Amino acid sequence: PLRCISKFRTFVKHEAEKNKSQWKTMGPAKVAVPSPKDFLQKHSKEPKLAPKKKEQDGKKLPALSVPQRTYRPVIRIKKNFIIRNALAVIKGVPKKPRHFCVDSRQGDKYLLEPSGLVPKYIKKKDYGVTPKYVTQRNEEIKREEAEYEASVVEELKKRAMKHLSDEEKTSILQALKKNWEETNREFQCLPVLTDTRYKKMHKAELETKLKQLEHDIEALEKHKWIYIANE
């Protein structure tokens, strides 16, 4: 069969040949060349202010309240500085001499007050006085201890516990120490060789008894108040 041929074939071919090498260089082939007279001048791109307004309708513009830059005020001061300085010296308080400390033969000196050699802290009125916050803290601690002891006593009274007096505590301590001495003497008299079962049991029993006595003596000596529960 015959091939279909477009009727715009010649037109398309002509357009393709026409625009084939149009962008071969940088930019279009035909560009308007700038004139050498139109070069960039200095301050040409800065914004320009509007022209000053001249007198309109024969009336002058109101004068500005701000003085001009060239305005120089006239200052007329008549002061006798010599007399002023003399009066300031006469009425002024004389300077007190500053104390120095020289620490070498060449005369090297430094101020005495900031050196730390002057006992200015000892001469304070409140030197050696306990600060208020310390006394307040001690009072609070004492009050808390008293309240705690009162609460403990109240709690023990509720539980019906008996307070151990100092005489009873001393007598108990003496009895415990005496018992410990007797037990210790008995322990020292044991034979060196414990080859039988009875000797081993007897030695272990004495050691346990000594440990219990030492624990009781330490508990009585460590605590100030001793209470005994009523059985």
TrEMBL record:
GO terms for cellular component: acrosomal vesicle; axonemal microtubule. It is found in: Cell projection, Cilium; Cytoplasm, Cytoskeleton. Residues 136-228 form the Enkurin domain. The keyword Phosphoprotein does not apply. Residues 39-60 have a biased composition (Basic and acidic residues). InterPro entries: Enkurin_dom, Enkurin_domain-protein. Transmembrane segments: none annotated. GO terms for molecular function: calmodulin binding. Keywords: Cell projection, Cytoplasm, Cytoskeleton. The keyword DNA damage does not apply. Residues 17-62 are annotated as: Disordered. PANTHER family: ENKURIN, ENKURIN-RELATED. This is ENKUR protein. It comes from Oxyruncus cristatus. The gene is Enkur.
